[in-house]
Amino acid sequence: MHEPFPADLSGAFEALATRKLGQQASFRAYTPSTMTDAATLARDGAPSGTLVVADHQTAGRGRQGRSWNDAPGQNLLLSFVWRDGRPDAWPRALLGVALGVAEALDAMGLAATVKWPNDVRLGGRKVAGTIAQAAGGALIVGLGVNVNQTDFPDDLVATATSLALHAGQRLERATVLAALLPALERRLDDALSDHAETWLPAFTARLDGLGQTVRLVEGETMLTGTFTSVGEDGALRLLLPDGRTRAFYAGDVHLLPSSTP
């Protein structure tokens, strides 16, 4: 049996304004990874929108195999099953989810930006990140949001923040989760549709590094150029010094010191 949601999270589901996302939800106090849990549910036939939330992950992960640091009971750690949209559109999911998170934070009075493809930032520091993978014929989306964590490992102190640190006060996790889920569902639907005009201008408007010189790292490839745009396919366009433009569907964008806000 799944554990009951704790009091500081259960309120998020009392009047949840979503069609699917979170209408079926389960909670784990501790789990190696909510992504693994959601993938298992997908293979067992869980419907689109099935949500897994945890208080702590012992083996949480970010993009490209990185680990995700969290303080137990302080943040939002969740993954969900999504069966809507064509699989060839799924690579755009990261952008839609990042946009949804940023807009939800905006509505809470926190001015958020996005860093292609999947980070959400406050004051130039990462507050949330998302990952995605296919499993059980579905898209599995994972999201971590630093809500009330105030201490970070030495290697993250300069680059990470939380809602509480930025707002100057602790926030109710249920309030944050209730704001996030409808925004995530709406923007995920938009990003997986064939209508880029529903999401791309909004994503571009809050994009860190756009028009500036950045370093793009993808595997063994490392290139420096001008970040000119994000296309309707979700790819980053990089203008190289030799005049060529290359499109990247994955990778890490490093804002160079002169470009960092």
Task: Give the mean pLDDT.
Answer: 92
By CATH, the superfamily of the largest domain comes out as Bira Bifunctional Protein, Domain 2
Number of strands: 12
For the record, give the distance between the C-alpha atoms at the N and C termini, rounded to a whole number. Answer: 47 Å
Radius of gyration: 18 Å
Secondary-structure class: alpha+beta
Order of helices and strands: HEHEEHEEEEHHHEEEEE
Q: Kindly report the CATH topology of the largest domain.
A: BirA Bifunctional Protein, domain 2
User: What's the CATH architecture name of the largest domain?
Assistant: 2-Layer Sandwich
Q: CATH class of the largest domain, please?
A: Alpha Beta
The helix tally amounts to 6
Shape annotation: globular
Strand content: 25-35%
Low-confidence stretches: none
Strand order of the largest sheet: 1-2-3-7-6-5-4
| Biggest beta sheet attributes | 7 strands, mixed
Q: How many domains, as an integer?
A: 2
- Percent of residues in helical segments? 10-25%
Structure, described:
- This protein has a seven-stranded mixed β-sheet with strand order 1-2-3-7-6-5-4, sandwiched between helices. It has a five-stranded antiparallel β-sheet with strand order 11-10-9-8-12, with no helix packed on it.
- The protein is built from six helices and twelve strands.
- Strand 4 (112-115) and strand 5 form a beta hairpin.
- It is 23% helix and 29% strand.
- It folds into two domains: 7-205, 2-Layer Sandwich (BirA Bifunctional Protein, domain 2); 213-255, SH3 type barrels.
- It is of the alpha+beta class.
- The longest helix is centred in the C-terminal third of the chain and has 19 residues, at 173-191.
- Helix 3 (93-107) crosses helix 5 (173-191).
- The N and C termini lie far apart (47 Å).
